[in-house]
Design brief:
Layout (H helix, E strand, L loop, with lengths): L4 E3 L38 E6 L6 E6 H5 L8 H4 L5 E5 L2 E4 L4 H13 L7 H13 L3 H13 L6 H7 L20 H5 L6 H18 L1 H4 L10 H8 L10 H17 L6 H8 L13 H10 L5 H13 L8 H11 L23 H14 L5 H11 L7
Parallel strand pairs: 2-5
Antiparallel strand pairs: 1-3, 2-3, 4-5
Length: 395
């Protein structure tokens, strides 16, 4: 489809074909076959969105019925006279505060045709931002599917951080909860909301981060995370790393940058302060004693008492140690080995289809589900049923 953007100030007459200067004298038998062009009521068919720019304005003409029937925020402009982002000028003409006229026109064309072409992850995120601002649920969900389809080690952190903009940081739906349900059961559930799609995509971002933790933790973007973002990642149980030192190094690097952001001295005490309980996320007792001593000599993420406690356990295996319940729990967490695989993602696209993952991984998840099934109570099962249909949306 050709671009519909034209400089503000132009008129429909300017786009009419040129005619010759030759004229014909009218006769008594000649009558007008159509009303004059200026009498046509174009406002009944089209609506114009005027994008205000710094140097020049642009007009995007759209099908009025398509906008009115879109059920998004723009459909309200004909009743209320405008929205927060769209202001009515006169009949059929509205001013819009948009910095990206190309993306806004793509959004308008989507409302008309229900078709849109994505270029890359950044472009999809930009369109998702527009769709969310104008509350276009079907485009929001289409963007989520596209983001999931092309989610990679290189793009996952960009997508993960963008999700925080849409208030979707809620306890993620777990892929293990989406197994063992029939297609008929899936059809009985109501339509899903964009928020539920965001939660599923967030879950899939975290799942991919778990699978490739060692590679992703070395990306510069990791040290730019907020505390909440970092916490959500490093507390994941199934982080796939060859050594726990990978996580320790990430916490060391992030705490240094956080001290700089807070304009405080980069000391071991300040590093522990900005990390808080995240200092305890590495599984220290799965390392060797020499590895642990090498780490603490570089950066002390544990205080002197905690270092002494871990060292004593390395040497004595808790024999003769008078531990408090809190210390016992801490030591048990330090000794806990990580699962061999993370859980499977929720299928939002062909990429996240379970069949694309190794058989060993699928077998492990299936056995884990079987072990956990008796522990589920009726209330929990009801909640899980509400999200089950995600596994079948794209079949």
């Amino acid at each position: 489809m050709g671009k519909m953007v034209k400089p503000f100030g132009s008129t429909y007459a300017e786009n009419e074909p040129l005619t010759t200067t030759t004229t014909t004298q009218p006769t008594a038998n000649m009558t007008a076959s159509a009303p004059p062009m200026e009498d046509l009521d174009l406002s009944s068919t089209y609506v114009e969105f005027i994008l205000l720019g710094d140097r020049e304005n642009y007009v995007i003409r759209a099908d009025k019925n398509a906008i009115a029937q879109s059920q998004c925020e723009l459909s309200r402009i004909f009743e209320s006279g405008g929205t927060t982002a769209v202001r009515r000028i006169d009949e059929g003409r509205f001013s819009v505060s948009e910095s990206n006229k190309e993306n806004f026109e793509l959004f308008i064309r989507y409302l008309e045709t229900k078709f849109i072409k994505f270029h890359d992850t950044q472009h999809t995120l930009e369109l998702l931002e527009i769709a969310s601002r104008y509350r276009c649920a079907d485009l929001e969900m289409k963007c989520v599917k596209e983001l999931d389809m092309f989610l990679t080690v290189e793009s996952v952190m960009k997508v993960f951080r963008a999700l925080w903009l849409y208030n979707s940081i809620i306890p993620p739906v777990k892929a293990k909860d989406l197994r063992g349900k029939s297609r008929q059961e899936a059809k009985e559930f109501p339509n899903f909301t964009p928020e539920e799609y965001f939660a599923a995509l967030l879950n899939n971002c975290l799942q991919l981060i778990e699978m490739h933790a060692e590679e992703i933790f070395q990306q510069p973007e990791m040290t730019k995370l907020s505390f909440k973002e970092l916490e959500m990642i490093v507390k994941r149980d199934a982080l796939q790393m060859s050594y726990e030192t990978v996580l320790y190094d990430l916490l060391s690097a992030w705490s240094k940058e956080e001290c700089l952001r807070k304009n405080i001295d980069i000391t071991s005490e300040n590093r522990r302060r900005v990390l808080g309980a995240l200092c305890y996320t590495p599984r220290y007792l799965t390392m060797s004693l020499s590895e642990f001593q090498s780490l603490k000599d570089r950066v002390e993420l544990l205080d002197a008492t905690e270092i002494a406690l871990v060292t004593d356990v390395f040497k004595n295996n808790k024999k003769g140690l008078n531990l408090t319940p809190e210390q016992t729990e801490l030591i048990e967490n330090f000794k806990k080995s990580r699962p061999p695989f993370p859980l499977l993602p929720i299928q939002l696209s062909e990429r996240s289809n379970a069949k694309n993952y190794p058989k060993k991984m699928r077998r492990y998840v299936a056995e884990l589900e079987k072990e956990n099934e008796p522990k589920r109570n009726c209330c929990h099962r009801t909640i899980l049923n509400c999200v089950t249909a995600f596994a079948f949306i794209f079949d």
